[in-house]
Amino acid sequence: MNIAIVGCGFVFDIYMRTIRAHPELHVRGVFDIRPERSRKVSAHYGFRAYASYEELLGDDQVQMVVNLTNIGSHYQVSKLALEAGKHVYSEKPITKTVHETKELFDLAESRGLMFYAAPCNVYSDTVRTIFKAVEDGQIGKPLLVYAELDDNPIHLMDFESVKSPTDAPWPLEEEIYEGCTYEHVGYHLVWICALLGPAVSVTAFSSELIENKMVGLPPKVGTPDYSVACLAFANGATARITCSVVAPRDHRMRVIGDRGEVSADSYRHYQSPVYLEKFTKGTLSARKFHTLRAHPNLGRLFGIGGRKLPLVKHWKSAAVEGDHQMRTSLKQRAVEWLRRREVYAQDKLIGIAEMARALAEGQRPYLSPDFMMHINELTLMIQGAGPDGIAAKPSTTFAPLGPIPGSIRR
User: Fold this and answer.
1) What is the spatial distance between Cα 7 and Cα 4, in angstroms, rounded to a whole number?
2) What is the pLDDT of residues 148-186, one digit of tens each?
3) What average pLDDT does the chain have?
4) N or C: which end of the chain has fewer CB within 10 A?
5) Rounded mean pLDDT of 5-29?
6) How many Å from the N-terminal Cα to the C-terminal Cα in the chain?
7) Tens of pLDDT, residues 251-260
8) pLDDT band at 318 (very low <50, low <70, confident <90, very high)
9) Residue 410 confidence (pLDDT)
10) HEC profile of the chain
11) 41 CB neighbour count, 10 Å cutoff
12) What gap in Å lies between CA 190 and CA 268, rounded to an integer?
């Protein structure tokens, strides 16, 4: 499928980390509102640089527009692409209002187009493995999800000096003004709602805790850097999601049932190991011992934490198992190997690949429009909860999605 990408900032290079694993996606060209970014990306990757967004939309060979612009531009960029007859894949959140999000899905449907959106970590090996354990009844009835998305104290991480391979700066100011909830909470919402179904009520709180996050900005900018939400689901389960740039990095995912627990260390590593612990009186009692809690390897001898499950692979698993970047030096390949092994391994193109596959096969995508509107609304509710908190019911819902397609069962 021929795609064109709008927005050549920091995240663009993250998408490009797995480009060679997706030969079915042909990048026709790129555009950024800052001409220097278009030129830089064009020179590095060899992609055509469109002189304007109108020129991109006027290219009859472009079948899909990938919207990687800043959050405030998502709505207008996606709308123009749909009006031009292009399928659209958008970064999250889709828009900043439920009304605008619904408008885009309605526009796509009226034009016979597909509108799809990030995040795509629901397609990862880790999430597939968690789902399989739950679907197979390994933990009994799922009752509770704990999901952490603490991403380190933003004011201590020197993000001002971080740049992508094409010298795009990490968007610190935008991250501060938009907030970690807008930017990050969808990574957990997408797999939790795909697993448990629609949320029927939300109790949430958000607050800004850190002052002076960046030189040149006000002491506080009025955007939460911490949020916590408790979601009640139609199937009777509950989830608690914590999101911050205040606490040290913690990306754990846990699904607790009435017979056991399945867990993983990170949503951001698509092959993060998954552990299954089946509860017994002995394993639960063993947790009382400080030494067993303090030494995980010793604790596992007594059943704490359970056993590692074989990962459920899929048609694009190889994308995060090797270096699939373009034009990398020996040093960059070494850094890439270390990052994949120890830090994170994402394939941000898998959502676009799944969308392209659905279009080619004439199928509906796994993540339905109703589902994506629900994720968007939950994100907005949690972000806007404020220090007084909210207890509210979402206006959106969706039909349960079922198993993730494309898995290679083992």
Assistant:
1) 10
2) 999 999 999 999 999 999 999 999 999 999 999 999 999
3) 96
4) C
5) 97
6) 30
7) 999 999 999 9
8) very high
9) 53
10) CEEEEECCCHHHHHHHHHHHHCCCCEEEEEECCCHHHHHHHHHHHCCCECCCHHHHHCCCCCCEEEECCCHHHHHHHHHHHHHCCCEEEECCCCCCCHHHHHHHHHHHHHCCCCEEECCCHHHCHHHHHHHHHHHCCCCCCEEEEEEEEECCCHHHCCHHHCECCCCCECCHHHHHHHCHHHHHCHHHHHHHHHHHCCEEEEEEEEECCCCCCCCCCCCCCCCCCEEEEEEEECCCCEEEEEEECCCCCEECEEEEECCEEEEECECCECCCCEEEEECCHHHHHHCCCHHHHHCHHHHHCCCCCCEECCCCEECCHHHHCCCCCCCCCHHHHHHHHHHHHHHCECCCCHHHHHHHHHHHHCCCCCCCHHHHHHHHHHHHHHHCCCCCCEEECCCCCCCCCCCCCCEECC
11) 27
12) 13
Structure tokens at 243: 């999101």
Tokens of 337: 């190997």
Position 212, amino acid: N
Look-up: residue for tokens 């920091």? 10
